[in-house]
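Lab meeting, item 3. Inverse folding demo.
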C-alpha cells in the first residue's frame, strides 16, 4: 500500500543517512509485516509484530525509563535533546519508534494509550520520536493525535476524510 511504501522509504532513508551511534529505530508492524525487511539493520533495536506482547511491554517500559533518564541528563544543557545536540554532544542517539497500522495496535494494546500519550507528548523533547501510520482519520485517538505536529495524508477515498484528519482544508483537496 502507499502507507507501507511511505514508511519503508522513510526507514530506508534514515538507516542510509545515520549510523547506529546516532539513531536507534524500533519497529512495531501491525500490518503486512513489510517493516521486518529492516530488522537486520544495525540501527534497528526491535522489529515486532502485534503478537509480540511481552516484547512490546518491554519496549514501552524501556522507553519510559529512557525518557526519565534523558530528562535528568539533559537538565544540565537546557533540558532538551536539541540543546544537548547543539552543545556539540553526540553520545546519545535519537530514537524513532514506527508503528504501522495504529488501529491494529490499539485494538490489541488499548491499555497502552496512556503510555502512547505521555511518550509522544514528552518524548520529542528528549530525542524520542514516534511515527504512526493509520488507514483512517479516527484510527489515532485525539489523546495521542494531539501530540503530533506533522501529519501526512495520502490519497483518501472521500474528501470528507481529509477534513477529519487535517481540519479545515479551505476547500483544497488533492
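The presenter then showed the designed sequence:
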Amino acid at each position: 500500500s502507499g502507507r507501507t511504501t511511505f514508511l519503508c522509504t522513510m526507514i530506508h532513508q534514515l538507516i542510509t543517512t545515520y549510523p547506529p551511534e546516532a539513531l536507534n529505530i524500533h519497529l512495531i508492524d501491525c500490518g503486512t509485516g513489510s517493516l521486518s525487511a529492516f530488522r537486520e539493520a544495525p540501527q534497528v533495536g526491535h522489529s515486532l509484530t502485534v503478537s509480540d506482547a511481552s516484547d512490546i511491554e518491554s519496549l514501552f517500559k524501556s522507553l519510559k525509563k529512557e525518557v526519565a533518564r534523558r530528562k535528568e541528563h539533559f537538565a544540565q544543557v537546557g533540558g532538551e535533546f536539541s540543546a544537548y545536540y547543539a552543545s556539540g554532544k553526540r553520545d546519545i542517539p535519537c530514537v524513532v519508534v514506527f508503528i504501522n497500522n495504529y488501529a491494529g495496535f490499539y485494538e490489541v494494546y488499548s491499555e497502552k494509550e496512556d503510555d502512547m500519550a505521555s511518550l509522544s507528548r514528552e518524548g520529542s523533547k528528549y530525542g524520542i520520536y514516534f511515527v504512526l501510520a493509520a488507514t483512517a482519520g479516527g484510527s489515532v485517538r485525539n489523546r495521542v493525535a494531539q501530540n503530533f505536529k506533522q501529519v501526512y495524508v495520502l490519497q483518501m477515498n472521500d474528501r470528507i476524510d481529509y477534513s477529519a484528519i487535517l481540519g479545515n482544508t479551505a476547500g483544497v483537496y488533492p
